[in-house]
């Protein structure tokens, strides 16, 4: 896949660290170009999704706070 579906996490903050590849992190109304070793903080409740802009898959570590239970993802329409 080349992108995530737009979504929010209502009770979890995220820290994203790109380990390979590149793309655009759509974060609220902002578009943040990201590449290897870039980091971003996504506060709970903020609309976001990642679009891969490279030829190869992008790989990132995502750290959730509190620990992610797999249930806190609400899909939303792109607000742009």
Q: Could you characterize what this model shows?
A:
This protein is an all-beta fold and 80 residues long. It has no helices and 8 strands. It has strands spanning 7-8, 13-20, 22-27, 30-35, 39-42, 48-52, 59-65, 74-75. Strands 5-2-7 form a 3-stranded antiparallel beta sheet, with no helix packed on it. Strands 4-3-6 form a 3-stranded antiparallel beta sheet, with no helix packed on it. The chain has a two-stranded antiparallel sheet with strand order 1-8. Strand 3 (22-27) and strand 4 (30-35) form a beta hairpin. The radius of gyration is 12 Å and the shape is globular.
Topology of this protein?
Blueprint: E1 7-8, E2 13-20, E3 22-27, E4 30-35, E5 39-42, E6 48-52, E7 59-65, E8 74-75
Antiparallel strand pairs: 1-8, 2-5, 2-7, 3-4, 3-6
Task: Give a nutshell description of this structure.
This protein is mostly beta strands and about 80 residues long. The protein has strands at about 5-10, 15-20, 20-25, 30-35, 40, 50, 60-65, 75. Strands 5-2-7 form a three-stranded antiparallel β-sheet, with no helix packed on it.
Rg over CA atoms: 12 Å
Which outline best applies?
globular
> What is the typical, i.e. mean, pLDDT?
94
Distance between the termini: 21 Å
Helix/strand order: EEEEEEEE
Low-confidence stretches: none
**Which sequence of strands runs across the widest sheet?**
5-2-7
Measured as a percent range, the helix fraction is: under 10%
Looking at how many chains there are and whether they match, the oligomeric state comes to single chain
Beta-strand proportion: over 45%
The count of helical stretches stands at 0
């Amino acid at each position: 896949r080349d992108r995530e579906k737009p979504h929010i996490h209502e009770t979890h903050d995220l820290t994203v660290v790109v380990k390979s590849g590149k793309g655009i992190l759509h974060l609220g109304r902002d578009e943040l170009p990201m590449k290897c070793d870039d980091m971003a903080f996504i506060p709970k409740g903020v609309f976001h999704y990642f679009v891969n802009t490279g030829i190869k898959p992008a790989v990132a570590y995502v750290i959730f706070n509190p620990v992610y239970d797999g249930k806190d993802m609400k899909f939303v329409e792109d607000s742009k």
